[in-house]
Amino acid sequence: MTLTTRFAPSPTGMLHIGNIRTALHNWMWARKHGGRFLLRIDDTDAARSQSQFVEAIREDLAWLGLAPDDEQRQSDHGDRYERVFERLRDAGRIYPCYETPQELDLKRKVLLGRGLPPIYDRAALDLDDAARRAYRAEGRRPHWRFLLDRDEAIGWSDLIRGEQHFNPAALSDPVIRREDGSWLYLLPSVIDDVDMGITDVMRGEDHVSNTAVQIQMFTALGARPPRFAHEALLVGTEGKLSKRLGSLGIAHFREAGIEPQALVALLARIGTSDPVEPVADPAPLIEAFDFARFGRAPARFDEEELRTLNARIVHLLDYGAVASRLPAEMDRPAWNAVRPNLARVADAADWWQVVAGPVEAEIAEEDRDFLATAAVVAGRIDWQDDPWHALTNALKAETGRKGRALFLPLRLALTGRDHGPDMAALLPLIGRERAIARLTP
Ligand code: GLU
After folding, report:
1. How many domains does the chain have?
2. Helices (H), 17-128
3. Which amino acids bring their CB within 6 angstroms of ligand 1?
4. 3-35, pLDDT tens digit by residue?
5. Residue 345 structural domain
6. Based on the domain organization, do 92 and 172 belong to the same domain?
7. Whose CA is nearest to atom 10 of ligand 1?
8. pTM of the prediction?
9. Final residue in a domain of this structure, among 122, 145, 177
10. Where along this sequence does the record place binding of ATP (predicted)?
């Protein structure tokens, strides 16, 4: 069976950094095993799902380079869910319940007050036809629960958490369908996982108790559950998933000049025992990806770490990968010259401006004669090979200046700044004419 994973977002908002990490891991796991990666749009909640979010999810995945092999939408599968529902209901695995939310709340409070776990008491199972009819006559419509088999111990070998055991008697029969006929996520997800041949499910550890009940749903459908990996959640530097972190999406990172490769490199590794490394190509990350490397402690997401990593990745990007985002005249040598100084690709335009000019420099009185000499020397050196070394060597011999006193006034006059890319790489781009003009007092 082909290893198949899925990323299953609900299109009720933009993806945030936590979902993006889940998507990435599902994609990596599939790629590592030569398998398939599906995008499944969990849009059973018609009221909250919006097509603009579906579009945004697709765009975000494309920007990250996580191309799905197929896309499915739960809203296309309503008939299939209905048939399975009828089958499980006829087999007694799904039953109607008529309690109102207030009644359920009261039951929970009573149990908690007695120090007991708030497990649903299955009162609805005792209703006879007459009682059900009476509720319906009152105008009540049923919601539906899945009947857990209390004799079927629940367990799975989680790829991250190891052996997991749940006592079904300690769980409430989960509600799978609302009064208005709409679906909760649990059962449709299992039906799709079976139908789509999903072999591996990676998701956050907030889903562990869902997995426990879903395992029995797989069995009820006569299917073998997939393998599961439940990841420790993502937290910010302050130790929790803050509101801010929960709302950070791709748009934010793009605007901040973060490259998709940087997000991929960071999210592939945080929360694992492998170091975060600047790699512009995901192949080595995929190669080394292994759930055995994941820890149980939350993964810490640090935007500062992302920015630093981003700069290191920008320094690795080839001209071809960025050309469309550079000023039109900027060629490969220019990119290679400024690249080591960039934190973001967009900043290349600033350095290009330094090359193309005009630049403004404040020249100190004591440097004027020196720069006048430099202008003359610049006129007679060979510009073909390495003009910066030719210029500075000649000036050193001629003026006796060295170190900072030699280099800094030149840099200031030539670029208008006291720091920046290697002058040996920059000066050929500035070129003879512009250099002489900038050095001439
Ligand atoms: N739509 C569900 C969610 O976003 C999917 C969970 C899953 O991966 O099964 O939480």
Report:
1. 3
2. 17-32, 51-64, 78-90, 101-113
3. 8-10, 42, 185, 189, 203, 207
4. 999 999 999 999 999 999 999 999 999 999 999
5. 319-356
6. yes
7. 9
8. 0.91
9. 177
10. 243
